[in-house]
Amino acid sequence: MMHFSEHVEQHQIDIRYEEVTDLELGDTIKRVRTYNAEYEARAILYCAGASPKPLGVPGEDTYRGRGVSYCATCDGAFFRGRTVAIVGGGDTAAEDAAYLARACKQVYVIVRKPFMRAAASLQRKLKELDNVSILYESVVREIKGDGMFVTGLDLIRAGKEETLAVDGVFAAIGVVPKTGLLKGKVDTCNQGFISTDEYMMTSIPGVFAAGDVIQKVLRQIITAAADGAVAVTGVLRYFDR
Ligand SMILES: Cc1cc2nc3c(=O)[nH]c(=O)nc-3n(C[C@H](O)[C@H](O)[C@H](O)COP(=O)(O)OP(=O)(O)OC[C@H]3O[C@@H](n4cnc5c(N)ncnc54)[C@H](O)[C@@H]3O)c2cc1C
Question: 225 CA distance to ligand 1 centroid (A)?
């Protein structure tokens, strides 16, 4: 199998490592501005990704990377034999809890509602795990630490204040699309993800979007790559109009 860079080389694709600061989306010509340059294109494929939603509580920024994490698969190994909390009630939170339960001593899942939104099969799996406790109707108020690392969190559980001793806090409450450059220019769904047609074209002809930034069911590397492949087909079709 050919490596990505070899593939790019073979097709003599010109890659520029620059930050895009502005997009001008005319009918026939689109302009892409960066800090140093301006490029013209007949079509644009926008794939700026999405970032994990922060919990927005005191202590989160202080202990980010020192107990506060947004990726169980990336950071789980640091918490082997420790106690952790996962905040969220969806599929990601449930999957993360099951994953962390393999290595951690105790896993708390902190769910705002009196039920989880995660798939029933995932919830069943969690209930079978002795070291997973689901705390419903619970909201994190503050992440506590000793100045270096997370030591616990304060929460309101069913209306009462509680303190939980944990070594790690994993936020799994969703992602925010990086749509800044297209804000107000293309149609988005109610959570701000970009709406596309089946060819990944946005509401502006010639402007395509793919990956985490679009409205879709599953945000993973494999689906982002697949979106990209579909979008390229869409761009070629757009050129042939
Ligand atoms: C913490 C975490 C863990 C994950 N773990 C997994 C996993 O184990 N398996 C899996 O399949 N998926 C995982 N995912 C999801 C996966 O990373 C994404 O679905 C995938 O990377 C989406 O690809 P993308 O190209 O849409 O966005 P990204 O990979 O986020 O790429 C977006 C790119 O756009 C660039 N960009 C943004 N704005 C600008 C700008 N103004 N100018 C220039 N460049 C810009 C960014 O720098 C970035 O390089 C994880 C996601 C997160 C957040």
Answer: 11
